[in-house]
TrEMBL record:
InterPro entries: Znf_C2H2_sf, Znf_C2H2_type. It holds the Pfam family zf-C2H2. The gene is LOC101236759. Keywords: Metal-binding, Repeat, Zinc, Zinc-finger. It comes from Hydra vulgaris. This is Zinc finger protein Gfi-1b isoform X1.
Length: 191
């Protein structure tokens, strides 16, 4: 069997696998006709699925919950992709460095790194980037905007990943903030 045939077979098996993941929907989910537009009171669904228990609520509260980690998603398709994380499935592999990715779009972004193309230039310092998102994150350093803050101590960061790393330090130190004071406790329940 040729390599292209193997890749096509793997892609077909992966799509079948994802479809199987979403077949066993919980009883509080029903199919409805997808609506192409939504306003602040109603929300369309790409998949045409709306939670029964949440009909009549605002768009922000209509979410799909992962049964494994209780994380919420606005779209069923996002939940289906997320479920692959728990199964450690990364079906898209870089042909240059063999790194695996959960999403095809992530592989495509990664591939730009190998191409050497850097079409995005910072207007302040002329530094170039392969991805526009990296340039925008970089530009926050020029403007001083730190949109991600720690909900425990209030420290602000340029990137979401940095606030997550910072919060792990709080968990290790068992440090919590009460008003303006930073205190250490054995657990948050002791506060």
């Amino acid at each position: 069997m040729a390599e292209d045939d193997l890749i096509a077979a793997d892609a077909k098996n992966f799509l079948y696998f994802v479809k199987e993941l979403s077949v066993n929907l919980p009883p509080d989910v029903r199919h409805v006709k997808p609506q192409p537009y939504y306003d602040s009171d109603t929300e369309s669904s790409d998949s045409g699925v709306i939670l029964n228990k949440e009909i009549g609520t605002t768009a922000e509260t209509r979410r799909f919950e992962c049964p494994t980690c209780n994380k919420y998603f606005k779209r069923r398709s996002s939940l289906s992709t997320h479920k692959l994380i728990h199964l450690n499935v990364k079906p898209f592999t870089c042909t240059v460095c063999s790194k695996d990715f959960l999403r095809r779009s992530d592989l495509k972004k990664h591939s730009l790194m190998h191409s050497g193309k850097k079409p995005h230039e910072c207007p302040e310092c002329k530094k170039v980037f392969s991805q526009s998102s990296n340039m925008l994150t970089h530009m926050r350093r020029h403007s001083g905007v730190r949109p991600f803050s720690c909900n425990i101590c209030g420290n602000a960061f340029y990137r979401k990943v940095d606030v997550r790393r910072h919060q792990i330090r709080h968990q290790k130190n068992n440090t919590y903030v009460i008003g303006d004071e930073i205190n250490e406790f054995s657990s948050e329940g002791c506060i």
